[in-house]
Amino acid sequence: MFVIGLTGGIGTGKTEVARVLKELGAVVIESDRVAHLLYEPGTKAHRAIVERFGGGVLDDSGVINRKSLGEIVFADTVKRLELEEIVWPAAKQWIADRLENEEIRGTQLVVIEVPKLYDAGWDDLVDTVWTVESPGAVISQRVVARSGIDESAVEAILAAQLTREDREAKADLVIENDKTIKDLRNRILTLWEAIPR
User: Any idea what the CATH number is for the domain that residue 158 is in?
Assistant: First the structure.
């Protein structure tokens, strides 16, 4: 089984790359969805988050409201690091278990989409790292249009991530997403043919 770690900053196009790889037949594990599972009531991470950040981060059904929690942690580096210390180890274990199951099933290719691959220490789970990158001005436009958050919130998120230079220095492959979606998809189709099976 071959495992690709797919990373990149917010708004660079990771999700589109993951979507194309999934269409081509890869199993895609999205770290955001794993975090959603960990935010469900009854998990250890859920309990730890509520203990640390209080009941105000819960929605009416008792699930952690990611927007409310995000407003707290992206405004305070110490709180963000505390959240990461709760969520990252739990998510890494979940993904490691999933990889074992995929290997047993005979899966050939798995993609783990995770913005903070290196920060979280998950690069030891993968065989190669691809980073998707885009020009800064394009990122801000995409994120504001997609998420409806203002540019200062985008800047706070970017400041909490590794720089583009750091990601590129560590990655095995850099995918530049500075043209159209069609160009990006064509690049992924070309890369797909070269992936070890």
Answer: 3.40.50.300
Q: Over its length of 197 residues, how does the chain's per-residue pLDDT go in tens digits?
A: 999 999 998 889 999 999 999 999 999 999 989 988 999 999 999 999 999 999 999 999 999 998 899 889 988 999 999 999 999 999 999 999 999 999 999 999 999 999 989 989 999 999 999 999 999 777 877 877 777 777 777 777 777 788 899 999 999 999 999 999 999 999 999 999 999 87
Count of domains observed in the chain? 1
In a domain, 195, yes or no: no
Cβ–Cβ under 8 Å, residues 153 and 139: no
Domain membership of residue 14 (yes or no) is yes
Asked if the structure places residue 192 within a domain, the reply is: no
- 41 lies in some domain: yes
pTM score > 0.85 for this model? yes
Q: Where are the alpha helices (DSSP H) in the chain?
A: 14-24, 31-38, 44-53, 66-73, 77-105, 136-147, 151-159, 164-170, 181-194
| 27-30: strand order across its sheet | 27-30, 109-113, 2-7, 128-133, 173-176
Q: 3-state DSSP call for residue 157?
A: helix
Is residue 113 within 8 A of residue 15, CB to CB? The reply is: yes
